Amino acid sequence: MTMHFRIVQRTGEPDDPDHRYETTALGLSALRSTMRRFGMLTDHQPLLWPDPDAPRGHRLFQEGPDSTAPSPGGIPDNKLTFPGRWHISTAEITAALAMYDSLFALPARLVIEDPEDGYPAWVRWIAFLRLATDHDGITRQT
After folding, report:
1. Domain ranges of the chain
2. 5-35 residue pLDDT tens
3. Labelling 63: which of 47, 113, 121, 142 has CA 20 to 30 A away?
């Protein structure tokens, strides 16, 4: 199964091939494992499938008090694993990258992210995440 990630572009931006990232379920599993080890993922789970026809009180109960707030500490793991279409916000991506950046001094990050020496999937993924912070986040669809 292929996982499709696309940067949410602002109105008027041209489509750019660098704004897309595709990987297999196995490839995503390896990325998730690394992200978890670096503290870039969170177990915070926003509402999965809101029912727009439910009474307002039911929706608020399902969503909980922080359903509209950015996820604490990074990208919610369920947004990378559960089927369907998910939006990963700029705030979530920024928090994940802040955690990653805090673990490695700039010289080490430059080596890790070097296209010639770094692990190719990680190099592309981190570059994709960094690019997404200049836009409106990422959508993921299986």
Report:
1. 2-12+28-45+70-141
2. 998 877 666 677 778 999 999 999 999 999 9
3. 142
